């Protein structure tokens, strides 16, 4: 029994280590994402994967190529445990990313960088999902657009320590209507 428990612990820690390597392999800093996407000929697609309503309240960078939500808000479904609206995966996410690449003369071998609010709930999972769908160079922005929140001090809970907004990169309060995901406009 003791040997089985030790074997399970070893397997579990190995899987966690592999997951950490995979996350670090996929991650780029906000500054790296900005530099990689510079210039009209860059073979990179930088995608904001947040729900458009979130962007409307948190901010946007026109440096992204477009907004394609990975998880969308179900405004009719409430999650009692998380005290928020339920989220569901955009069923057309991979197809919309592929269309956006094709519109730029790129294919699934190009680098696709996804960015969410903090990098964890949608950034990394969207990059992993794209990899699983054959986009072999999918990456994500570590700490996302807004960054992580402070754990202590006067500004505890505020997202002011890292991420795109806190890296001195360009951003603003209003989304670009030509880049934001809209139901009244064919995507992408």
UniProtKB/TrEMBL annotation:
GO terms for molecular function: transferase activity. Residues 176-188 have a biased composition (Basic and acidic residues). The keyword Phosphoprotein does not apply. Residues 166-188 are annotated as: Disordered. Residues 40-157 form the Rhodanese domain. Residues 1-23 form the signal peptide. Keywords: Signal. Pfam families: Rhodanese. InterPro entries: Rhodanese-like_dom (IPR001763), Rhodanese-like_dom_sf (IPR036873). Coiled coil: none annotated. This is Sulfurtransferase.
């Amino acid at each position: 029994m003791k040997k089985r428990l030790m074997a399970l612990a070893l397997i579990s820690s190995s899987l966690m280590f592999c997951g950490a390597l995979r996350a670090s392999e996929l991650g780029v800093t906000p500054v790296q994402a900005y530099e990689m996407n510079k210039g009209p000929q860059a073979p990179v697609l930088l995608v904001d994967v947040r729900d458009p309503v979130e962007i409307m309240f948190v901010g946007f960078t026109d440096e992204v190529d477009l907004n394609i939500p990975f998880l969308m808000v179900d405004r009719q479904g409430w999650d009692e445990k998380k005290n928020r609206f339920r989220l569901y995966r955009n069923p057309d996410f991979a197809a919309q990313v592929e269309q956006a690449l094709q519109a730029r003369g790129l294919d699934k071998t190009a680098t696709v960088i996804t960015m969410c609010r903090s990098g964890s709930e949608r950034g990394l999972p969207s990059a992993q999902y794209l990899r699983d769908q054959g986009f072999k160079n999918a990456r994500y922005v570590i700490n996302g657009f807004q960054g992580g929140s402070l754990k202590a001090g006067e500004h505890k809970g505020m997202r002011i320590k890292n991420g795109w907004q806190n890296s001195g990169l360009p951003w603003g309060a209003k989304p670009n209507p030509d880049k934001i995901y809209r139901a009244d406009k064919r995507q992408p």
